[in-house]
Amino acid sequence: MDKVTLKNQVKQVQTKREFLVQLLDRPDLGTLRIDINQAIEELDELIEEFKLTFPEENLQN
Fold it and tell me: What's the superkingdom here (predicted)?
């Protein structure tokens, strides 16, 4: 996998993370809230590792 493809994949992950954050606003999640929080934490770790590995890359573009 080349760097451009990896960057695009991480950008997609960021989009999915935002969806999960919005999902937390729903009052009917019950115990699913724990899984969503865990998923957000893991996505945050993945994004941070990408930024540490490729500090010159800007994920906002």
Answer: Bacteria
Would you list the DSSP string of 23-40?
HTT-TT-TTHHHHHHHHH
Classify residue 59: in a domain, yes or no.
no
* 20-48 tens-digit pLDDT: 999 999 999 999 999 999 999 999 999 99
DSSP-derived secondary structure for 11-23: HHHHHHHHHHHHH
CA 43, 48, 53, 56 torsion-angle sign:
positive
Domain count, the chain: 1
Return d(Cα 61, Cα 34) in angstroms, integer.
31
3-class SS of residue 57: coil
